[in-house]
Amino acid sequence: MNSDEYIAIVDAPFDTEETRRPFGKRWASQLITLKQEHLTALQQGKLLAIDDQGEYGVYLKLAGENHV
User: Per residue, what are the HEC states of 6-50?
Assistant: First the structure.
C-alpha cells in the first residue's frame, strides 16, 4: 500500500469498521469508477467533480495542474 495524508493506493475496498486500514474508522465508503475519458480530461487539465453520496462534493485534479 502506498499512501499520503488523504489518498491511499489499495488493492480493494476495505471494511470501514476496521481501524487498522489507511484512514482508521469511517462511517461509510463509496466506490467510484473512472472511465478513460475521465483520465483523459484530467490529463487535459480539467477537474473531475464527484457527487459523494448526495451529500458532499469532491474534486479530483492531476498533480501539478493549477486550479483555484
Answer: CCEECCCCCCCCCCCCCCCCCCCCCCCCCCHHHHHHHHCCCCEEE
H or E element: which one contains 51? strand 48-52
Tens-binned pLDDT, residue by residue, of the chain (68 aa): 555 678 888 888 888 777 677 777 788 888 899 999 999 999 999 999 999 888 889 999 998 867 65
How many residues in the chain?
68
The one-letter code for the residue type at 36 is: Q
Phi, psi dihedrals of residue 37, rounded to the nearest 5°: -65, -30
User: How far is Cα 1 from Cα 39, in angstroms, rounded to an integer?
Assistant: 22
Q: CA 24, CA 45: separation in Å to the nearest integer? A: 32
